[in-house]
Amino acid sequence: MIRQLVLDVLKPHEPTMLSVAQEIAETDGVDGVNAILIEMDEEVRNIKFTIEGEDIDYDTVTGVIEDTGATVHSVDQVACGDRIVDEMPTPQD
Amino acid sequence: MIRQLVLDVLKPHEPTMLSVAQEIAETDGVDGVNAILIEMDEEVRNIKFTIEGEDIDYDTVTGVIEDTGATVHSVDQVACGDRIVDEMPTPQD
Amino acid sequence: MIRQLVLDVLKPHEPTMLSVAQEIAETDGVDGVNAILIEMDEEVRNIKFTIEGEDIDYDTVTGVIEDTGATVHSVDQVACGDRIVDEMPTPQD
Amino acid sequence: MIRQLVLDVLKPHEPTMLSVAQEIAETDGVDGVNAILIEMDEEVRNIKFTIEGEDIDYDTVTGVIEDTGATVHSVDQVACGDRIVDEMPTPQD
Amino acid sequence: MIRQLVLDVLKPHEPTMLSVAQEIAETDGVDGVNAILIEMDEEVRNIKFTIEGEDIDYDTVTGVIEDTGATVHSVDQVACGDRIVDEMPTPQD
Amino acid sequence: MIRQLVLDVLKPHEPTMLSVAQEIAETDGVDGVNAILIEMDEEVRNIKFTIEGEDIDYDTVTGVIEDTGATVHSVDQVACGDRIVDEMPTPQD
Amino acid sequence: MIRQLVLDVLKPHEPTMLSVAQEIAETDGVDGVNAILIEMDEEVRNIKFTIEGEDIDYDTVTGVIEDTGATVHSVDQVACGDRIVDEMPTPQD
Question: InterPro entries, alphabetically (chains A, B, C, D, E, F, G) (predicted)?
């Protein structure tokens, strides 16, 4: 089970970041969604989505995103299993 | 449901940041409002509003702000769903 | 209701920062006051007041300050509503 | 018993980081897996896995990783015993 | 009531920072005292005292300090009221 | 009683950091061991061990390490007594 | 009563930092001792001791240290009273 998913997304100006976040939040297995505006230019907005839940469905979530004309640029972080495990910083980072 | 909303706002000197924050705080679904003065010049003040609640109504909140002659420059962060999810920093940031 | 108020104040050397803080702390709706010396020169002291309470009265507090000959240079932060909401840092800051 | 394992892994683009993390999360003795994209180029992706559990089996976990064509570049951190002990920063670091 | 007091003090080498801290700690209304050596030169030591209690008496505390031949260079922070309020950092700092 | 021990160790490539950490974790009085790869070159690996327990036996632990051909380069931190006390940062550091 | 004591100590190579820390930990009124290696050269090691307890006896502790041939270079921090009070950072630092 996917407990946490951090996606880097390139989104056209419409629909709004807010409406996309609301739509993701309503999909099964999602408890909550955080959306942050990283950067924007004439055409697109770079948005970072942090999604948490008991059993996130990757295809459903990315489907919601892509239906708005946006693209998932990269999966930056994922946490799977019975609980969310945080990344452990080490000197090698 | 919108649990948290971070707005970057350009506001004329009057009415005060305090009175706008109080007005937002009294709208339905809002628990509390934080307002910070980022910068000010001759004409305007750049204010950052952090709004939290059980069910924030975006149009109502931005209506309160715009009625004072201010403009919402950007929605910098939003958190939707059953609980507030914080942004997860990753090496890609 | 105002739960938290951060004021940037320019104050003559007398009365002391301590006595002004004590006076503010005794006004209705205030639980506690933090006062920090930011800078001082020949004439004035730049003091930062962080005031917290259940129902801070802005006019009463600024009245106490101004009665000492000090001036409120700016309201740097305010938190209103049912609870104190902290500012949420975002990449836009 | 191994309670925490931090692995630096070089992985081909397919299968995805997500699917490898899910597979590790399903092995015995693992509670949860965090996977972060550190860097990527034409050929490979540098992924950092933080794995936590009651009794992680090193060979099983690295087996899952290597079956996908990926290689474990280094074991960056490990925590063994009855509980997870965090690294203690000292001036010598 | 004064709940916390941070004093910047210039003290001769004797009596020791320890003995002055102990003496302040024994005055009424004081729960505890932290004393840190900031700097020292041939003549004096720059000590920072953080004093906390239910009802600190400013004159008593500064009297203890001055009786040792030391001087209170500045009151750097004070917290008054029913509880200790911490300073709230803002972009204006 | 030794509650925490931080050792800077130079270790040949074999046996692995993991197996040495597991062996230390199984000695009496040790609750858990954290091992971090600080650096490595052709010959050796610089490993930092953070060991915690109710009653760590220094000679036993260093014996386990030295039996693998590794050397304890320095004891960087130790905590003794009834509980673990953390280092207190001061301006003198 | 002394609740916390931070000492900057110059110590010959023998006896070890560990044995000195153990000895301090066994003195009355001490709960725990943290010892950190700050620096070392041909002759001496610069060790920082953080000592905590209900009622630390300064002369006993420094006696233990000096009996080993070490010298207390400075008392960097002390906390006295009914509880440990931490240093409060202020803009003046």
Answer: DUF211, MTH889-like_dom_sf
Give, in degrees to the nearest 5, the angle at Cα C33 between E79 and E17. Answer: 10
Residue G34: inside a domain, yes or no? yes
Which subunits have 3 or more CB–CB pairs within 8 Å of chain G?
Answer: C, D, E, F
The three-state (H, E, C) secondary structure of F48-59, written as one string: EEEEEEEEECHH
Q: Are strands C2-12 and B71-81 parallel, antiparallel or unpaired?
A: unpaired
G55 lies in a domain? yes
ipTM: 0.91
- Specify whether the CB–CB gap between B16 and C75 falls below 8 A: yes
Residue of chain B whose Cα is closest to the Cα of E90? B36
- What is the number of structural domains in chain A? 1
Domain limits for position C48? 2-80
Provide the CATH number for the domain around residue D32.
3.30.70.1340
pLDDT digit string, tens, across residues G42-87 = 899 999 999 999 999 999 999 999 999 999 999 999 999 999 999 9
Domain contains D31:
yes
A76, β-bridge pairs: none
Query: 31-90 in E: which are within 8 Å (CB) of C?
Result: 58, 74-88, 90
- In DSSP terms, G32 is beta-bridged to F81, G52
Q: Does residue A58 lie within any of the structural domains? A: yes
Closest-CA residue in chain E for F90? E36
